[in-house]
Amino acid sequence: MKIINLIITLIITSTISCAQDKNPKNKENTYKIIVSDLNIPWAFAFLPDASLLITEKSGELILFKNGKKTNITGLPEIYLRGQGGLLDVILHPNFRDNNWVYFSYASSDDGDSGGNTTIARAKLKENELMDLKVLYKATPDTSKGQHFGSRLAFDDAGYLYFSIGDRGNRDVNPQDITKDGGKIYRINDDGSIPDDNPFVNNDQAKTAIYSYGHRNPQGLTIHPKTRKIWTHEHGPKGGDEINIIDAGKNYGWPIISYGFNYIGTKFTDITKKEGMEQPIHYWDPSIAPSGMAFINSDKYGNWNGNLLVGSLKFQYLDMCTIKDNKVVKEERLLDGLGRVRSIEQGPDGYIYVGIENFGIVKLIKE
What we know:
Elements: H1 2-19, E1 29-36, E2 41-46, E3 52-56, E4 60-65, E5 68-71, E6 86-91, H2 95-98, E7 100-107, E8 116-125, E9 128-137, E10 152-154, E11 160-164, E12 183-187, E13 209-212, E14 217-222, E15 229-233, E16 240-245, E17 281-283, E18 289-294, E19 307-311, E20 316-323, E21 326-333, E22 340-345, E23 351-355, E24 359-365
Antiparallel strand pairs: 1-24, 2-3, 3-4, 4-5, 6-7, 7-8, 8-9, 10-11, 11-12, 12-13, 14-15, 15-16, 16-17, 18-19, 19-20, 20-21, 22-23, 23-24
């Protein structure tokens, strides 16, 4: 009995130690609370007057201005299930002129068959959304509660990119361009399909698809210098990835992966295959990444140019030093404050971070 207990103890100890994150803590950082008392601030965006639009996953769109929170009315019905709810929010590049706000959320067509990721826009007038238009709705609805994605970003040409996870249908959606899920998409700002999208001439394809073979991307941003699209995505056990996205490319999920099933078994024996892109970085153990932003500011000295990724699992802000499109160093910032969900650089050049059950904080380099 003692031997059995010893073996069990060794297995548990080994499992825990393998799951521990070994990135060093950076002690040259602190924070200032900007918005308190938030539950899951899935995303936030700065308005021209530096006030904030904040999404709560539970289905609230909040305006934070002059220290006061106001609920924005006019949201569509939000489907709440598992990881689904009210998700990302961004402004149109010409928001000052057109007042368009873009957001992603889970919606249901009939309420009984489940839901899926939806992209919409509306005009923000005072404290109300008006002229709501759904730009894209992934199909079919499913009652599965995982892998909705979803991040949004505009590029310099005015194209809107967004991510939708594989919706828990690992072996079907990501590798099939006739189906939604496990993809990065590109549309025009009005929801129409760009003429040069990679699959626009394929009659069977979902022509909004820009790349495929993804699992659950919850980080998407534009590199401040190269202007390339960078994403990260949740892997299984091990295998969270950072990818640089190119049109029409296949990023491999689930044919290739550096991860395992959550119970430790394999679902693939290969990490590389011709015709499938390699990540520029992967995490093992998984950090459960969410939110993504480059530091593009003189407020942080030699941190300028680094990539920031939130860790839900280990509850810190991961600062990645990048060299030649490779992560050469990682450090923990804001360690232990809570699950880091969202990251944005503000108009003042400072980095702001949304932390679950805490709020939005300003990152300060000491």
